[in-house]
Write a structure and sequence with these properties.
7-stranded mixed β-barrel; 46% strand; mainly beta; Immunoglobulin-like; 21 strands
């Protein structure tokens, strides 16, 4: 007997189709998917009705939008999450509800996420709502969502020569004179290091952050968040990378650590006491870009 599973197809407009394969016939069943926001209090949920696929109960007559073909002797029902349904930012676990019974976690099947790779939203989009279905470590299906506006999307990151060069694109606002990149030490309110922004039009930008400047803030800590201030009078925007199909970039994308020119010694990342400092750009668990200072103790004599 075929165990229930969900195949997913996502598009660049926020829509996700769930094709749920059930064993045997599902005629007359009251079936639905329940999306539940993890760690929400009060609990946030969205209910999506499951309906038979047009053109064939096993999905063979409706290939459009289906990630996988149906299994022989099984029934395939479809639920669609529309792009207009508002979902808070976070992780939404997907449950199967049959005939009013207890919601059960739903195992993941196949995915078609090609439309999410290297997305380029319209330039006039003021708010981005990104949804990416994925498989949890237990094999179940969940949906990671981001709700950002304005948003500064990371393009290329080049760590070299005692610093990092960042290319990106701004959505939901325009770059004006006075635009700058800001590095803020995590947990240290009021402190920051700034770098000028080279504007390419009103959306694309390039900025270079010198790692040595981070050491000029004693006691600021070793974790630095990166923000883009679009203009002198504009509010800061967190720099992140969310417009693709990789939900946990900190596990996939790893940038090299580079020596930090230390003011006391002048070069090589070596402090006056013999220890070293290296800097590494990295993505947080929410795919926001940050920089970590990695320090090593001096060698024993």
């Amino acid at each position: 007997m075929t165990a229930p599973r969900a195949d997913c197809t996502a598009d660049g407009e926020g829509r996700i189709g769930f094709d749920v394969t059930l064993p045997g016939t599902a005629e007359g069943w009251d079936a639905a998917l329940l999306l539940r926001l993890r760690e929400s209090d009060p609990e946030e949920t969205v209910r999506l009705p499951l309906v038979p696929l047009p053109g064939g109960s096993d999905g063979s007559g409706d290939p459009a939008g289906s990630a996988c073909s149906g299994a022989p002797g099984a029934t395939v029902l479809r639920a669609t999450l529309s792009g207009t349904t508002r979902l808070a930012e976070g992780r939404w676990d997907v449950f199967l509800v049959l005939d009013g019974g207890t919601p059960q976690r739903l195992p993941a099947g196949c995915y078609d996420l090609r439309a999410l790779v290297d997305q380029v939203p319209p330039a006039d989009r003021t708010r981005l709502e990104v949804r990416v279905p994925y498989t949890t470590k237990y094999g179940n299906i969940s949906v990671r969502t981001w709700l950002r506006g304005p948003h500064a999307e990371v393009g290329e990151v080049w760590p070299a020569d005692g610093g990092m060069t960042l290319h990106g694109r701004l959505y939901g606002a325009e770059l004006t004179s006075g635009a700058r990149l800001e590095a803020r030490p995590r947990g240290a309110v009021g402190r920051l290091v700034t770098a000028p922004v080279d504007r390419q039009g009103t959306a694309d930008f390039t900025a270079r952050l010198a790692y040595g400047e981070l050491l000029r803030e004693p006691g600021a800590g070793d974790e630095w968040e990166l923000w883009l201030r679009p203009g002198a009078d504009a509010g800061p925007v967190r720099v992140a990378r969310i417009l693709d199909d990789i939900i946990d970039k900190h596990e996939v994308i790893r940038y090299p650590a580079r020596p930090v020119p230390v003011p006391e010694s002048g070069e090589g990342g070596e402090t006056a006491g013999g220890g070293t400092v290296r800097a590494r750009p990295y993505y947080t668990g929410t795919n926001d870009l940050s920089v970590r200072l990695e320090r090593t103790a001096p060698k024993a004599p």
